[in-house]
Each structure stands twice: as structure tokens, then as C-alpha cells.
Amino acid sequence: MVRAPFTVLVLATCVFALLLTTTTSTDARLSALPLRAVAPAADAASSARVDLGRLLFWDPILSANSDVACATCHHPDFAYTDGRDLSLGTNAAGLGPARVSIVGHDVVPVRRNSPTILNVAFNGLTADRPNGSPDAPMFWDLRVKGLEAQALEPIKAHDEMRGDAYSEPDAVAQAVARLAANAEYRELFARAFGATQPVTARNLGRAIASFERTLVAGNSPFDRYMHGDADAMTPEQVRGMERFETAGCVNCHSGPMLSDFAPHVLGVPDHPQLEASNAGTGTYAFRTPSLRNVGLTGPYMHNGVFTSLGEVLNFYRRVSFGGGRGGRRGAGFGQRGLNPNVAPATRDPLLRQLNMRGRGQGEIIAFLQALDDPDYDRTIPRRVPSGLEVGGHIAR
Ligand code: HEC
Ligand code: HEC
Fold first, then answer.
1. What is the distance of C-alpha 374 from the center of its chain?
2. How far apart are CA 29 and CA 131, in angstroms?
């Protein structure tokens, strides 16, 4: 009974994947987003999986203290980010920039800036990697591959959803046990996955990933322009796009996601609130982020250290002019300077090739804003099966 629509879906997905590989493989270094996100063959979506995934995404039952949901840090009011420089997880309350530690708890912020979940299903999509790749790169330092695997990580993370209740190796099993003890979740998992014991860690990841693949926002002015509507972008935005290419931004921010999904050493300054310098996996290399919806997802960079696109552009100016010559000049600029722990010689050579002369910054910013598609899914479930506060402790 459940199988028949599945087979149809899998087939439809395969046909779609074929269509997409033929229509998006152009030589252009910038291109429109495909219409739909394809799931890896083993993890095909169904409406039962998507609906379950949405509830899980909003339900703080996944956190040890019943106070944090995925949506706490990836909320539609902030284009599925939290609008903060650094995220605040368990033992805090409130939403977005207004979120604060609960009295009596001195919550350590997460070391990183929360990326948007919009279009995350397209992570890894480049000219040589297809839509729906199971090894799609995740996180600022690329340490996890694939949406299904990623979804279990926040449950284990001390500063996000786990807190002090149990140890990291126990975290996912504990969350799965809470779900299995809930009759409504047992039924929803059975409907989505069949089988006699459907409430498993693997199916938890699959349901959340199925939901995330529906959070697609690919109807920006840029997409409409690339589809042939010459009036979709303003003349300033079109000039900005040309500058984006001639300045050399496109050497890293390329393809339909405006990212090569590769690590690069930029030397972004450390966040002053964090005690230790954050070198990522050791070299200060961070992944090129997608620039889709970038006008809606500030603050910027892996640690949210820049509050506006203007600050980002100023950073690129500094790093292209002064960055190659010793970097001492930048050290005095505090939060807006260059990172004194990153030796200039280790910075990506593509930065020195940036052509940031002239006054084109405003045009580049106008182009970046043409990558926004504010018409995304903002659905908030009215209730979640645990009966806890929808989205975690986000009410003020
Ligand atoms: C306390 C805030 C917080 C919570 C709760 C949280 N996240 Fe995140 N999320 C982040 C931060 C911060 C990052 C970036 C971490 C890094 O790269 O080191 C991130 C990264 C991600 C990414 C990778 C995006 C990309 O482009 O690489 C995905 C997907 C994601 N989160 C989904 C989820 C899901 C699903 C949940 C719930 C199971 C969740 N998050 C819970 C803050 C949070
Ligand atoms: C050498 C590769 C490279 C080049 C060239 C490059 N970028 Fe980036 N870009 C990155 C990386 C890597 C990051 C993340 C760095 C970090 O977080 O430490 C980034 C971050 C950004 C961000 C912040 C996005 C966010 O969500 O936080 C913006 C905006 C941006 N770049 C725009 C540009 C523009 C405009 C240009 C051209 C002037 C440019 N980039 C050139 C690799 C590059």
C-alpha cells in the first residue's frame, strides 16, 4: 500500500535528475537553481516523511532539556538562520538577536554562525557534482557529508541541543528513545517508513532531510534573469553581476549556489567574544558559503563577525590590497581587520587576484541582493507531538 506511491516518486525523481543534469550543465560560471532538490536514491521523499520531518524540526523533544528545536536557530523569521552572530543553544530563551541566557546559566555561544537551511538541499551542487549527491558537504569546515547525517549532529552537540544531561555518544539514542515513547511519533514514523520498529536514528535523519529538501527558494531576480527575463534585475544589479565576475568573486562563488563548496583560507578576524582563536580544522580554511538569500541571512562569515554586506566588501578590499603585504596593517582594525593568526602567505592566492579597484562595491551589493528570494515557505506548525513549545523556548 505504502510502496506504490513510493516507486512512482523514486521514478519521478530519477527522471527529474536526468532532466536537471541535461539542463544545468552549461559552461557559464553562474547559473539558475534547479526547480527541485533531488534526494539520494536510498532516501527518496514522501509527503509522510516531509510532514514528519517538519514536526521534528520544530519539536524541542530532540533536545535534552526540552528547550531547543532545530527551528530555534533556523527560523523562517530570519530566512532559516537565527539572525545572530553566534548561536545560543540550550539554557537560553528568546528568538534571534533577542535571545539571551536564562538567569543562573552562563550559556557559552556556539562557536559558529548559523547558516540558512533554505536551499541547503543543493549543497555540493557544482558543474561536476550532481543534485542529490549523498556526500554533499555540510558545515563551515565541511566536517560532515550529507543532509541525513548532518541532522543528527546538533543533537550530540553540547552547546546546541545536548547540554550536560548525558554524554555525546548517548545523545542520539536518548533522543530516539524519547520519540519511541511518544505514541503519536510511533504512528507518524510507521506511516513514513513502514517496518515494525521504524523509530530509529537513521529514519530520524531521513525525515528531517526530506523536510529540508522542500525548503527551496529559487525564484530570485537573478534566477528569473538567468531564465531569460532581461528585466528581472535592475541595470545596477546587472552591472554588479559583471563586476562580481570581473573582480574575481566568481572564482570561488560559482555555479547555481554561488559556491565551489571548497575550503579556502581568507583570514577573517576571530570573534572577540570567543576565548580561543577558531582555526576550523586547523588551517583557518572555511568553506565558501552559498550566497543565495545572502541579503536576508546576516551577520556574515563562519563566526558572524561582519554585520553587513558593506563590511564584507571592505574586508575583501583590505585583503586584496594590504593582505599580501604582511597583514600588520589589518591587525589594528579589531573586529574589522584581518586575522593576525593567519600568515599572509597562507591566504588563498585568489584573494590577491581580486580586482577591488574603483567604486563598484554598491553595484556588487545590489547584485548580491538580487540573489534573495523572500517568497520561501514560512510554515510554522500549530503544535508538535511532544506538546512542548513549538520551536523551543523562543517566546519572550
Ligand atoms: C543552537 C543553534 C542550532 C541548533 C539548535 C541547530 N543548529 Fe543547525 N547549525 C547551527 C550552526 C551554528 C551551524 C554551523 C555549524 C558549523 O558549521 O560548525 C549549523 C549548521 C547546520 C546545517 C549545515 C548547513 C550548511 O550549509 O553547511 C544544517 C543542514 C543544519 N544546521 C540543520 C540543523 C538541524 C536539522 C537541526 C536540528 C536537528 C539544527 N540544525 C539545530 C546552529 C544550530
Ligand atoms: C578565495 C575564494 C573566495 C573569493 C575569491 C571570494 N570569496 Fe566570498 N567567501 C569565501 C569564503 C571561504 C567565505 C567564508 C569565510 C569565513 O567564513 O571565514 C566567503 C564569504 C563570503 C560572504 C559571506 C556569506 C555568509 O553567508 O556569511 C560574502 C557575502 C562573500 N563571501 C562575497 C564575496 C564577494 C562579493 C567576493 C568578491 C569581491 C568574494 N566573496 C570573493 C570565498 C571566497
1. 16
2. 16
* The three grid cell numbers given for residue 193, joined into one nine-digit string: 517508513
In single-letter form, the type of residue at position 76 comes to P
Q: CB under 8 Å to 287, separation ≥6 — which residues?
A: 137, 139, 140, 141, 142, 259, 261, 262, 263, 264
Q: Which of 90, 139, 290 most suits a substitution to test ligand 1, by most atoms within 8 Å of the C-beta?
A: 139
Closest CA to 108 of 90, 120, 96, 94: 90
In this structure, is the dihedral angle defined by the CA atoms of residues 202, 191, 154 and 256, taken in order, positive or negative?
A: positive
Q: What is the pLDDT of residue 28?
A: 65
Residue 336 is predicted with a pLDDT of 54
- Ligand with an atom nearest the CA of residue 148: 1
Q: How far is the CA of 158 from the centre of ligand 2 (A)?
A: 29
- Ligand that lies nearest to the alpha carbon of residue 139, given by its number in the listed order: 1
Q: Which of 99-108, 177-186, 201-210, 226-235 has the lowest mean pLDDT?
A: 99-108
Q: Pocket of ligand 2, candidates 301, 305, 338, 341: which has the most ligand atoms within 8 Å of its Cβ, to mutate?
A: 301
Q: Which residues line ligand 2 (CB under 6 A)?
A: 247-249, 251-253, 264, 266, 268, 286, 288-289, 291, 294, 297, 300-302, 309, 312, 316, 348, 350-351, 354, 364
Select the more confidently predicted residue: 325 or 265.
Answer: 265
Residue with cell 584573494: 351
Centroid of ligand 1 to alpha carbon of 127 (angstroms): 26
Instruction: Tell me the per-residue pLDDT of 332-369, one tens digit each, with 9 for 90 and over.
Output: 444 458 899 999 899 999 998 999 888 889 999 999 99
Residue 151 reports pLDDT greater than 70: yes
